[in-house]
Design goal:
alpha+beta; 5-stranded antiparallel β-sheet; DUF520; elongated; 163 residues; nucleotide-binding; Alpha-Beta Plaits; Nucleotide-binding protein Npun_R4736; nucleotide binding; 4-stranded antiparallel β-sheet; UPF0234-like_C; 2 domains
């Protein structure tokens, strides 16, 4: 049996669930009476979602639908970074919604500092865009997980590689 236990803190999302959510948004837009004739387009590219529509009101409706469908598929709302609304040709508006993935160095340092300050028997180390947390007791790791869930970070945190 291992003498130390560990887990990784990451910020990631299931790409296939996001694809499914965007497909549902597109189907909803085609089916909803108030959005049917707006020529709204929603496309998922590598690191963002591009939305183009007739008005800001319609854009807000698309945001609402996207948030609902993402929530139903267990995707955090924190993965969406709504960019500024740009006017496009012909009284249209467009917006790029960036997808957040990975933990920045600043947030990783905050997490590491919180763990060091509050939990003396637990070690945290920053490894790229993840934080590895290790301890001799699984119970200590579970307490750390509960404490981190109480914090409100600007990214969605997941706990992986629990060993």
């Amino acid at each position: 049996m291992a003498s130390t236990f560990s887990f990784d803190i990451v910020s990631d999302f299931d790409r296939q669930e996001l694809v499914n959510a965007v497909d549902q948004v597109i189907r909803d837009i085609k089916g909803r009476y108030d959005l049917k004739d707006t020529e709204t387009t929603v496309e998922l590219v590598e690191e963002s979602i591009n939305v183009s529509t007739d008005s800001e009101f319609t854009l807000d409706s698309v945001h609402t639908i996207l948030r609902e469908k993402a929530a139903k598929r267990n995707l955090s709302q924190k993965i969406f970074d709504f960019g500024k609304v740009e006017s496009a040709s012909g009284n249209r508006v467009r917006q790029e919604i960036k997808l957040k993935k990975g933990i920045s160095q600043e947030i990783a340092k905050q997490i590491s500092k919180l763990i060091r300050d509050e939990f003396k028997k637990v070690q945290a180390s920053i490894q790229g865009d993840a934080v590895r947390v290790s301890a001799k007791s699984k119970d200590d790791l579970q307490v750390v997980m509960q404490r981190l869930k109480q914090e409100d970070y600007p990214v969605a945190l997941q706990f992986t590689n629990y060993r």
